[in-house]
Amino acid sequence: MTLSISTDRTWDFLGTEPDELSISVKDDRFTVDGRGHLEWDCDRFALAHILVDDRTAEVYVEAAPNDACRTSDNDEGRGPWLTPFTVTGRFVGGRPDALEVHLEGQYIEGDGPRGGAFARTDL
């Protein structure tokens, strides 16, 4: 599984843009396209964990702070920054019945079970 983060960030100072996730599946491969808010321009998203519970695969992506740039010398770095990302992966040993993706972080909003953005597709 890989996570790619775009460098094409947008400063969303009013926080009006939604956090979004979409899932596409072809054969044994899947792609998650998303965008979410990060607090600082140097922060990143990271794969937090991957679970297979019964017949549902769950992918958790969360904001990962970078303390190196979170300083008073970097006034322009404070966000929130709307940041696109892509997760690609492959099912090994067969496809599950469903794939869920959770995006979590301080500035992420949505209707997920634990807050944050959420997407699910039945396979």
TrEMBL record:
Keywords: Plasmid
Name of protein: Uncharacterized protein
Source organism: Haloplanus rubicundus
